[in-house]
Recover the amino acids of this structure.
């Protein structure tokens, strides 16, 4: 209990009772055995950076592959189209009507009918062969 | 001192109430949007940002029997415009017109329409479409599609048929095999922003189209072309209004050529008349005339009533069933063989035999040869012909039907009759398709055509022999082919009057024949409508000769040339058959069939 204040005895500060402190200021070097956080941060940042870089590189490669695939698909499509057009052109050029017209323009005339030749039957028996010939 | 209305508790309660109300309304709205109307709103959202584009399947090609393409599909573009958004239709039309070859006025009219989507041109070649797109005219775009092309133009036009703008077969083989040819279209589902640009990470799925299968026909392109050329020459030379020709392989039933004149170009079918679009060989039945006399001959020989060498008296006139019939040309009464009567195409001789044979046998023989029903070739619009049921035969039918009047057949049906005679009495169902060609080029062959026996080999050989006589020294001498023994028959028939009873002045001439007659493989029929002169011998027979001669050479079929030391063709012809009288019920065994063809008796015609 606090004593009553009097005129003769000026009031003196009474120190507060000592309370356990949870926080304290640390001065000087950290305690031995604890790693400095800077290194950790640098390492973490480096790892993150490398991971990001790897990710970007992978994305770039994937993108390149996609572009190449797209380009190849376009090339295949173009070649297919060209093949189709060439086949159609060949079919048109090979049509009998066109060939006949072109041949007539070149002065050709239709061939006469097939002539059947009958070999004369000069021999009635089997043909004779000579050995050694 | 406390002011009125400032009680904190009350304020808090009011505030709590207001916020509760607000949150409750939000919650109710959320429930409405997320639960009650979730499905329709979800689909509405999808509709706004998801587009499904149909990826057209390429239509399968049609090939000839040697895998020469007759109809092919190729990539093309459909050019369209959002006409409502185009601010300068005339300017856009002026730029596009020279590339597409469409006049500016037409394009301006299309681009001025108050429509969101307008086709500018369909089936545009890809390179042409690219040139239009390179103009970068806003709201002008292109869609993928395929175009059908017939590289040989009017070759077999009526047989191949044609497709509409959506590549659906409308006629001919294109229609007949539409399911096989058309394939299954694919689709691409794509998510896009309000401007129509694809969202890179959005939904994008593709179901590839399955291209259609091709078909390999039995048509031989070269024979088809030659038949068309010969038919056109013959028709022009005789002034015929139209004509048809068909070439069959009697042993397999393969149709090697089906020619119609005037021809049809399927690339431009819009300009053809409906009559020009028909494949008249299967769609049009006609009264065949004297080519029908083989039916009576088959029935008479099979029944043992008449043989080729039997003598008969043939006057010019014959009055039967209350009507007078006569031969084509005036002649004195002949005493000739039945083979001679056929060679001279005597109506009276045939009627005399028919009366002996009787209605029932002739009717049965018509049925057995396939009259009155489709041939089985399966072509769209095939006619079954017109054959009166037996109980509806007129009394005069016994005189008219044997000479090919009062009955109607298609040219293909008639060719099948002669193919049966060529094939020793076995009729093989005709076919137009040899197999289905898979997209990878593999061929799945069609099963062989079914066949059935119609007459015995003996009857077929006897009739064939009579037909050789027609070509050797009868009405069909202009069908002779050097080196080959040819059998055939002429026929000239009047055309029924469509608007009244009786017949018109129009007529149809036919020649149908087979070669080589000693080992017949090919059958050709030629038909001309209203030619001049008005006889088959001078009009259809020469065309037959040209087509048959070319076909024999093209297919490498050996001539009927005698071997050295063997009998000559003349000796073979002169080797007249005795007159066997087969039993009406039992056909002779194949061994009894003569190795050498029967020929016409040399008995001269007697006045």
């Amino acid at each position: 209990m606090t004593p009553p204040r009097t005129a003769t005895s000026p009031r003196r500060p009474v120190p507060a009772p000592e309370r356990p402190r949870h926080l304290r200021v640390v001065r000087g070097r950290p305690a031995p055995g604890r790693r400095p956080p800077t290194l950790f941060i640098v390492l973490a940042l480096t790892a993150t950076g490398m991971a990001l870089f790897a990710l970007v590189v992978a994305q770039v490669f994937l993108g390149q592959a996609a572009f190449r695939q797209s380009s190849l698909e376009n090339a295949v499509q173009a070649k297919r189209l060209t093949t189709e057009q060439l086949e159609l052109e060949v079919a048109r050029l090979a049509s009998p009507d066109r060939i006949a017209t072109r041949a007539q323009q070149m002065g050709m005339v239709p061939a006469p009918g097939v002539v059947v030749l009958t070999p004369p039957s000069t021999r009635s028996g089997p043909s004779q062969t000579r050995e050694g010939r | 001192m406390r002011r009125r209305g400032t009680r904190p508790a009350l304020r808090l309660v009011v505030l709590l109430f207001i916020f509760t109300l607000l949150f409750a309304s939000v919650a109710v709205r959320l429930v409405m949007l997320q639960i009650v109307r979730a499905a329709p709103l979800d689909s509405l959202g999808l509709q706004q940002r998801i587009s499904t584009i149909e990826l057209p399947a390429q239509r399968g090609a049609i090939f000839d029997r040697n895998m020469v393409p007759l109809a092919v599909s190729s990539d093309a573009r459909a050019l369209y415009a959002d006409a409502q958004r185009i601010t300068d239709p005339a300017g856009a039309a002026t730029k596009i017109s020279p590339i597409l070859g469409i006049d500016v006025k037409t394009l301006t009219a299309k681009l001025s329409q108050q429509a969101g989507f307008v086709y500018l041109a369909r089936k545009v070649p890809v390179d042409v479409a690219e040139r239009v797109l390179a103009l970068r005219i806003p709201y002008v775009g292109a869609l993928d599609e395929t175009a059908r092309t017939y590289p040989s133009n009017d070759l077999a036009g009526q047989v191949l048929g044609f497709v509409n703008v959506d590549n659906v077969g409308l006629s001919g083989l294109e229609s007949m095999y539409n399911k096989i040819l058309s394939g299954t279209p694919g689709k691409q589902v794509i998510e896009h922003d309000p401007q129509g640009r694809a969202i890179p990470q959005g939904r994008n799925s593709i179901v590839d189209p399955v291209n259609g299968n091709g078909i390999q026909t039995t048509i031989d392109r070269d024979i088809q072309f030659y038949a068309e050329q010969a038919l056109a020459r013959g028709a022009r030379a005789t002034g015929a209004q139209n004509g048809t020709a068909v070439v069959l392989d009697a042993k397999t039933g393969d149709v090697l050529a089906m020619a119609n004149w005037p021809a049809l170009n399927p690339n431009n079918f819009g300009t053809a008349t409906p009559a020009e679009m028909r494949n008249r060989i299967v769609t049009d039945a006609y009264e065949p005339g004297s080519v029908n006399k083989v039916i009576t001959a088959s029935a008479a020989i099979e029944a043992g009533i008449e043989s080729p060498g039997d003598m008969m008296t043939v006057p010019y006139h014959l009055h039967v069933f209350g009507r007078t019939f006569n031969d084509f040309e005036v002649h004195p009464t002949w005493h000739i063989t039945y083979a001679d009567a056929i060679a001279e195409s005597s109506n009276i001789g045939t009627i005399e035999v028919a009366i002996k044979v009787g209605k029932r046998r002739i009717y049965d023989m018509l049925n057995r040869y396939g009259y009155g029903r489709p041939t089985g070739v399966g072509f769209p619009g095939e006619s079954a012909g017109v054959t009166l049921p037996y109980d509806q035969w007129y009394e005069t039918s016994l005189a008219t039907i044997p000479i090919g009047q009062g009955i109607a057949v298609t040219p293909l049906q008639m060719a099948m009759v002669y193919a049966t005679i060529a094939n020793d009495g076995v009729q093989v169902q005709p076919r137009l398709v040899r197999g289905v060609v898979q997209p990878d080029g593999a061929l799945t062959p069609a099963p062989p055509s079914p066949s059935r026996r119609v007459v015995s080999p003996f009857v077929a050989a006897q009739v064939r022999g009579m037909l050789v006589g027609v070509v050797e020294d009868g009405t069909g001498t202009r069908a002779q082919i050097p080196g080959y023994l040819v059998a055939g028959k002429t026929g000239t028939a009047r055309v029924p009057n469509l608007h009244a009873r009786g017949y018109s002045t129009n007529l149809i001439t036919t020649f149908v024949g087979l070669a080589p007659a000693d080992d017949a493989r090919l059958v050709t029929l030629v038909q001309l409508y209203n030619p001049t002169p008005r006889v088959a011998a001078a009009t259809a027979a020469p065309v037959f000769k040209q087509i048959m001669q070319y076909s024999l050479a093209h297919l490498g079929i050996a001539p009927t040339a005698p071997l050295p030391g063997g009998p000559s063709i003349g000796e073979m012809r002169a080797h007249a058959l005795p007159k066997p009288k087969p039993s009406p019920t039992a056909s002779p065994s194949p061994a009894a069939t003569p190795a050498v063809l029967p020929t016409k008796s040399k008995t001269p015609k007697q006045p």
The radius of gyration of chain A is 55 Å. The helical segments of chain A are 37-93, 96-105. Residues 3 and 9 of chain A are 11 Å apart (CA to CA). The mean pLDDT of chain A is 76.
